[in-house]
Amino acid sequence: MRRVEGKVAIITGGAGGLGSAAARRLASEGAKVLVADIAVDAAEQVANEIGGGASAVHLDAFDAASIQAMVDTAIDRYGRLDILNNNVAHTGGTGADTTVLETSIETWDQSFAVNVRSYFIATKYSLPHMLKNGGGSIVNIASDSGLGGDSALVAYGSSKAAVINFSRYVAAQYGRQGIRCNTICPGPIATQALREHAPETLKSTLKAVYVPQLGEPQHIAALVAYFASDEAAYTNGAMISCDGGLDAVITPWMAQGKLMN
To answer: What SS3 class is residue 181?
Structure first.
């Protein structure tokens, strides 16, 4: 399928597992893609592998000027902007983002700076170009961590919850002008980094999900391509989990009736 033929897309965090998969999928469906990442050498490698007009740009998601420069680069190189996939993420580092009492204010601020503020800024600078073209699609990557509480990741989970509602605000404010803004909430995904550094996590994930396979980056990329395409023309402000059924199933301790009267 060539559902986004002739369109121009920015992928933030485009050198990572999910971002690079989205960039490749959109390119395979006809889009010109700008792969934006702080690891610009890795972003250039992804763009070179894609070929066909794909290119890379340095992105520092903490820096508003860098985000604006990314959008300006897309316009300078391609003359338009139709798709923004906000995919960059900050997880706080191992052991830094846990409970309210244990998580530092710095870790909280960093999570919101990248996971929410950068999405806001990228959207703010992209919208005028999309509106000029008569519309566009913004696809924000949140997380299942944004759908409920947990014993850790208070900053990351809270920031991802903010992403979900931010997308709804964009849809509400600009939907009638042709802008669609939707959210994907991945569950555990078997990226190359997880395969290399946390294989035990993947084993436990396979036991927890309600499908007979692990989630792969291409599963998220497929949803990005759908939301970016005209097939999703009547879908706005939506959120979809891609998590092997984790969000759909009641927790085991509740299923055993421990909270039932």
So the answer is: strand
